[in-house]
Design a protein that fits this description.
CATH architecture: Alpha-Beta Complex
Structural class: alpha+beta
Strand content: 35-45%
CATH class: Alpha Beta
Helix content: 10-25%
CATH superfamily: Nucleoside Triphosphate Pyrophosphohydrolase
Order of helices and strands: HEEEEHEEEEHEEEH
Largest sheet: 8 strands, mixed
Radius of gyration: 16 Å
Number of strands: 11
CATH topology: Nucleoside Triphosphate Pyrophosphohydrolase
Shape: globular
Number of domains: 1
Distance between the termini: 16 Å
């Protein structure tokens, strides 16, 4: 990715011009969840914010994920779910998030969720308040990393089982599973439309 800025207006146009792929068949026993793919520009560099989950949460213990969670009955939209959960997990208020659009749905195999990803630009990240019961730490990864780092497929041992999964490795952090798939989907969409450099195998 040659331009290090977030180019939020470009991303908004790209996402609004396409219809996200929706998972709707054969998922009666799956719950629905909304997550936020947060973009934060700092010092001219576009970063993606992830959370590392604690070992106390019900699902995806210790994994790197996007802020988000299950749809509540009172939520009027997936965007509302993503914004509400983001506030609950990292204290980022709705007024400081600019929604840019939706990505394709994906599934979590272990926890059995249909996940609806929402892309948002963070306009102010001051005074974040992490929920220590849910979030161990916030991880910032430059967006350019996902254009220069290969999405690998390998095996992962988790809670005693072995899974084949796509994954990104950045520093000491492993981004795998549904989060890696959503990130790859985002990179594919904006990379194709903005003619950004592709990963080379």
């Amino acid at each position: 990715m040659t331009d290090q800025r977030c180019l939020t207006e470009n991303i908004r146009v790209i996402l609004s011009a396409r219809t996200p792929e929706v998972i709707s068949m054969g998922i009666a026993d799956y719950r629905h969840a909304g997550v936020l793919l947060p973009l934060l520009e700092e010092d001219g560099t576009c970063n993606v914010l992830f959370t590392k989950r604690t070992e106390e949460v019900e699902h995806h213990k210790g994994q790197i994920s996007f802020p988000g969670g299950a749809v509540d009955e009172g939520d009027s939209s997936i965007e509302e779910t993503a914004l509400r959960e983001t506030y609950e997990e990292i204290g980022l208020v709705e007024e400081h998030i600019e929604i840019l659009g939706r990505l394709d749905d994906t599934l979590t195999i272990l926890s059995r969720y249909v996940v609806h990803p929402v892309v948002g630009a963070i306009t102010c990240a001051d005074n974040l308040n992490i929920s220590r019961a849910e979030v161990d730490r916030i991880i910032k990864v430059p967006l350019s990393v996902f254009f220069s780092t290969n999405l690998e497929t390998g095996t992962m041992e988790y809670e005693g089982d072995i899974y084949e999964t796509p994954a990104y490795v950045h520093d000491a952090d492993l981004i795998w599973g549904a989060t890696a798939r959503m990130m790859a989907n985002f990179v594919e969409i904006i990379g194709n439309e903005m003619r950004l450099p592709r990963n080379k195998k």
